[in-house]
Automatic annotation (TrEMBL):
SUPFAM superfamilies: Winged helix' DNA-binding domain (SSF46785)
Short name of one Pfam family: PadR
Protein name listed in UniProt: PadR family transcriptional regulator
Domain Transcription regulator PadR N-terminal: 21-87
Amino acid sequence: MKHSLGEFEELVLLIVGAWRDRAYGVLILKTLEEKVEKKVNISAVHVILKRLENKGFVKSRFGSPASNRGGRRKKFYVITAFGKKLLDHQYALRDNIYRQIPEISFG
């Protein structure tokens, strides 16, 4: 496969896939911070989401206006078949390389 993802892009795409059609910026941010155990900037998440959408790995839709958000709508993201195929490729590649590490003890 010709396309590849950076680590941060891959993590965001994995989280979008895991949340299915319920993934939105703040939820992705909170999940990412929980998993990597460090603070992440929301604007960095939005930049990656835009990049992933431009590449065709995710698509977005707006939810209904919410009164608790001042009438603003959440933007939800969902992984595309192309995005899932890329994640499958990345996983297989990493797994293949990992399995080449000799079965030795480092302890």
